[in-house]
Amino acid sequence: MVTVCRVVSFLLLVLLAARLPAQEDDKVVRVFVFAGQSNMVGSDSKVADVERFPPFADAAKKLPQVRFRYVIGREQKHRSEGWVPLQPVDGVVGPELTFAREWQRHRKAPLAIVKVAAGGTSLGTDWNPDQPSGFQLYPLALATVREALADLDAKKVKWRLEGFCWHQGENDMFDEAFRRDYGKNLANFIACWRRDLKAPKLRFFVGELCTKTVWGMDHRVPMHGIELGQRAVVAQDPLVHYVPTSHIAVEIGGDAGLHYHYGTLGQLEHGVNYAHAYLAATGGFPRPARPVPPWPYAARSTVDLYVLTGHRNMEGERAFVQDLAALPSGGMLAKSQEGIAFWCVTGGGVHRISLAALGQSGLYDTFGPEVSFGRALTKGGHAPFTLAKFTHSGAQIVDFTPTGSEAATRNLYPAWLEFVRASIAGIEQKGHTVRLAGIVYHLGENDMAWHPHRQQAALWLAEWIAASRRDLALPNLRWFVSQQAPPDHADLKKIDVVAAVRKLAATDKNLVHIEVLQPPPQREALVFDAAGIVWLGEQLAAAVLKKK
Questions:
Q1: Domain boundaries, the chain
Q2: Is residue 345 within a helix (H) or strand (E), and if so which, with residue range?
Q3: 49, exposed or middle or buried, with CB in 10 Å at 0-12, 13-18, 19+?
Q4: Which of 80, 85, 88 is nearest to 46 (CA)?
Q5: 302-547 architecture in CATH?
Q6: Which CATH architecture has domain 23-282?
Q7: How many Cβ atoms from other residues are within 10 Å of residue 139's Cβ?
Q8: 383-393 pLDDT, tens digit each
Q9: CA atoms of 132 and 185, how far apart (whole Å)
Q10: Bridge partners for 29 per DSSP
Q11: Whole-structure pTM value
């Protein structure tokens, strides 16, 4: 008995000894550097708008427990006086606000953020470590970080330099030499930071440029050049991580439709992306598991499969689950629909849900039209059926065509086609006969806001439809294509894109054109809120039931 007690006591001492270093480590302040140009600043976002977005309603509040030090701006700089509590600066929303909150959900250690950012600056000049010119941001940022760390030392605060979040490249893409050498310049930038901070293993998180807007369509090729440079560095350095951002929200603005900054909602999501990238890179990022329901279909039955696909509204960019409570039948839609199996890939592959009951599927507490689509099909007596969804809110129609564009990394057709095939195979493996009953596509919202894409929309759609029927060996594959009212700008409306798609449908008996031109009143241009997304799903279901 004495021996057993001694063994137990010894094991307890071992466990206690193991816990002590971990507990001490949780007291070490983790320091992150945030740097870059306007989308790192948070340009064109508004602190006053934060409360409009339920998942982030508290993001503008001061966080006294997070240390913050900053120098933001070009000619007129906003500077903190030493360390201050994390808070918005100059009335805009920087990604650090939600990064910190997401950090606190997953980590116990205290956090400190040093931010140096200025819009309209380049890696080739302002941020150049070897020959800084322009606003000379590299030496400014280095001095700011060093001062911040020295201040922690003076206060006898233990700290660890944990990561560097970088979002920049929009200016370099306009200079041929800077664009060509972006990868080399970025690698040198990283090496110099590690050298100058004596942090050889410092992790870097490199944000993707904003490809979702007219800016992203008009400058598709030069943006691609920056991406290739970034990805080359990521491929060569295991401590550099690429952070996709093209799927996050962007601000709607101006007569032409879209802006090149993320805006308020996009910036709130921007910070979450950096936090998730860090958590994934360092382990310990538990994604909430969705329960796999009992398989709801009778053995050896025939199951209809609908593949939903599209961009911003099919993804549900601005439809928040919290807003369902205010809608008729919203409470029902907030619940999982156990009788409908569902899986999805959104953001072009950023987010995935394997087999689950139909329900909320978006990042950032969002949902798509599939929830009301599925419920309406069930109420209409359509059974059995299953739903799969492949979307990318940052894509345009050309990205889904087999030809694609010069920006090869944005081509989605191969991944989309593989998703459709895998969806069919997955159901067949459960012993069912599968009927691909339709591709349900909501026509590209972003494309409608830019003349060249609006002009090509119907042609690209026809190319995609023809390729899908050929490659899936389903010559009569039915497509349900919904189309909302395009922007009514004076120059854009010279192209009657609704009439062009209507004409295409008139020549194809297996193409159902669904004109969803009068949604519930919407606050934003192009992108539907929760009420609009629920309505869209119901319109799609009505068109499908009509063809049954």
A1: 23-282, 302-547
A2: strand 337-346
A3: middle
A4: 88
A5: 3-Layer(aba) Sandwich (3.40)
A6: 3-Layer(aba) Sandwich (3.40)
A7: 12
A8: 899 999 999 99
A9: 12
A10: 159
A11: 0.94
